[in-house]
């Protein structure tokens, strides 16, 4: 007889061996609390041009529509906080994009974990997710006790802060779920106060259209002139709301070699960035999340920083 508690512990031990920072389990069920929040956020057009967020509304809230017969959602966190950061006055890249694209790294680990589950527990039907399908990863991670969703809308933990990626396995395997944790933001508004574009319009609500990460990554059109002088030198993504969060004083450098940046990324000077060629872009950002903007988008961002 399959033991839900023993199997849960077995999976958690293997997840730790694979380098995951955290592993939590939720029952695969409709996210009732998230449904009105998501609907309100979409209706207020806080997703901007990310029209794909409007698709598959029901699937975002019900994991059994993604994996028929799903019984458990296993959430994983993986630390990406770097040991070293960029130097001087160079245009800034979000820390998560320093090394190899996390989609590749986490997918490889989840594939290995799925093979382990099949070998140790038996034939299990399921899917791995890393930002690749309509899954509300932060909601599931919070539900499984891996942290709470902070006022900046990112997952937070008391021990590690917020510099980590999230991935999921949705399985038709019954596992003992973990209880959620509690919110520890208190009266702190550091993230809201520090955001130069006032993207965090109220606690726990981000208007993507004002977010520097959205403007430099997701937005394909020209960046609105109203943001000139407010980008704080961010050329790809933004870490401001995380950098000022008191809980991130507990962040420790990651131990994943694939997240290590190429030395030239950290050492490039401002003038080298501003004159970057397509060849240099392709070399420095090979297998990097920065490729998402393409060369033209990255140059657009750099040009906008000079306005």
UniProtKB/TrEMBL annotation:
Keywords from the named record: 4Fe-4S, Cobalamin, Cobalt, Cytoplasm, Iron, Iron-sulfur, Metal-binding, Oxidoreductase, Queuosine biosynthesis, tRNA processing
Biological role stated in the UniProt entry: Catalyzes the conversion of epoxyqueuosine (oQ) to queuosine (Q), which is a hypermodified base found in the wobble positions of tRNA(Asp), tRNA(Asn), tRNA(His) and tRNA(Tyr).
One of the GO biological process terms: tRNA queuosine(34) biosynthetic process
Catalytic activity: epoxyqueuosine(34) in tRNA + AH2 = queuosine(34) in tRNA + A + H2O
NCBIfam families per UniProt: tRNA epoxyqueuosine(34) reductase QueG
Pathway(s) of this molecule: tRNA modification; tRNA-queuosine biosynthesis
Gene designation per UniProt: queG
CC terms in the record's Gene Ontology section: cytoplasm
Localisation per UniProt entry: Cytoplasm
Oxidoreductase is among the record's keywords: yes
Co-factor note (free text): Binds 2 [4Fe-4S] clusters per monomer.
Active-site residues, as the UniProt record annotates them: 131
Principal EC category: oxidoreductase
EC number: 1.17.99.6
SUPFAM superfamilies: alpha-helical ferredoxin (SSF46548)
UniProt: [4Fe-4S] cluster 2 binding residues: 195, 211, 238, 241
Annotated family: Belongs to the QueG family.
Sequence positions that bind cob(II)alamin: 60, 131, 155, 166, 213, 238-239
Family annotation (Gene3D superfamilies): 3.30.70.20
Binding site for [4Fe-4S] cluster 1: 185, 188, 191, 245
Name assigned to this protein: Epoxyqueuosine reductase
Transmembrane regions listed in the UniProt entry: none
């Amino acid at each position: 007889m399959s033991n839900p508690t023993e199997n849960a512990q077995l999976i958690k031990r293997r997840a730790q061996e694979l380098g995951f920072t955290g592993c939590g389990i939720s029952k695969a069920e409709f996210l009732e609390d998230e449904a009105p929040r998501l609907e309100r956020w979409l209706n207020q057009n806080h997703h901007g041009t990310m029209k794909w967020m409007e698709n598959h509304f029901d699937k975002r809230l019900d994991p059994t529509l993604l994996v028929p017969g799903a019984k458990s959602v296993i959430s994983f966190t993986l630390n990406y906080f770097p040991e070293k950061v960029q130097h001087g006055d160079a245009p800034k890249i979000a820390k998560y994009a320093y090394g190899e694209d996390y989609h590749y790294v986490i997918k490889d680990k989840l594939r290995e974990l799925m093979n382990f589950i099949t070998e140790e527990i038996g034939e299990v039907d399921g899917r791995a997710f890393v930002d690749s399908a309509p899954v509300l990863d932060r909601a599931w991670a919070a539900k499984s006790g891996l942290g709470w969703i902070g006022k900046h809308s990112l997952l937070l933990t008391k021990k590690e802060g917020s510099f980590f990626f999230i991935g999921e396995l949705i399985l038709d395997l019954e596992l003992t779920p973990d209880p959620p944790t509690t919110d520890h933001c208190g009266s702190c508004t550091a993230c809201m106060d520090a955001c130069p574009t006032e993207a965090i319009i109220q606690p726990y609500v981000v208007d993507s259209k004002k977010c520097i990460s959205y403007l430099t990554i997701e937005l394909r059109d020209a960046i609105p002139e109203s943001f000139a002088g407010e980008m704080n030198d961010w050329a790809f993504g933004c870490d401001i709301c995380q950098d000022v969060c008191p809980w991130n004083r507990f962040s420790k450098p990651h131990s994943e070699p694939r997240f290590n940046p190429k030395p030239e990324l950290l050492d490039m000077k401002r003038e080298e960035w501003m004159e970057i060629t397509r060849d240099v872009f392709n070399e420095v950002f090979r297998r990097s999340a920065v490729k998402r903007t393409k060369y033209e988008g990255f140059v657009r961002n750099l040009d906008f920083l000079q306005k």
